[in-house]
Specification:
141 residues; alpha+beta; 3-stranded antiparallel β-sheet; 5 helices; disordered C terminus
């Protein structure tokens, strides 16, 4: 049970979920994640270290940079199961999109205000039954 608790605690952080969501699209460098998420290098690196320590991401050297990717394809199954579960409870959270160039804005682009009473996690996209989509991540200057 301890391993499951550690996994869910790791996945319980909104920033780590955002990082995993981007890595589900393909390999990213720290600088790419910084740009997409509007976060400091130390923040992204710290979360990547946590995700790597938990076996969720891996890295490989490319020149002086490291490229990060998902370590386990089963994580995508967990994302899909989570999306299905939340949709069945009246929420729609998008944790994974297929393809690297998916045509969707990154979290730091065109933010909309949070209006859903149960949506308290930054960066998770919620679509209400009426089709109104909100992104809860505010851009950083």
């Amino acid at each position: 049970m301890a391993a499951a608790a550690i996994l869910f605690r790791t996945l319980g952080d909104p920033t780590r979920l955002l990082i995993l969501r981007h890595l589900a699209r393909g390999e990213h460098r720290v600088v790419d994640l910084m740009s997409h998420l509007g976060l400091a290098q130390s923040t992204v690196s710290g979360h990547l270290a946590c995700l790597r320590d938990c076996g969720l991401v891996r890295s490989r050297a490319q020149g002086r940079a490291s490229l990060y990717s998902l370590a386990r394809p089963e994580l995508l199954d967990l994302f899909h199961a989570t999306e299905s579960f939340l949709e069945a409870t009246g929420e729609r959270v998008v944790l994974h999109h297929t393809g690297h160039d998916h045509g969707l804005p990154h979290e730091h682009e065109s933010p909309r205000p949070l209006t859903h009473r149960r949506a308290q996690r930054p960066g998770l996209e919620l679509t209400h039954p009426a089709g109104d989509t909100h992104q809860t991540r505010e851009p950083q200057a």
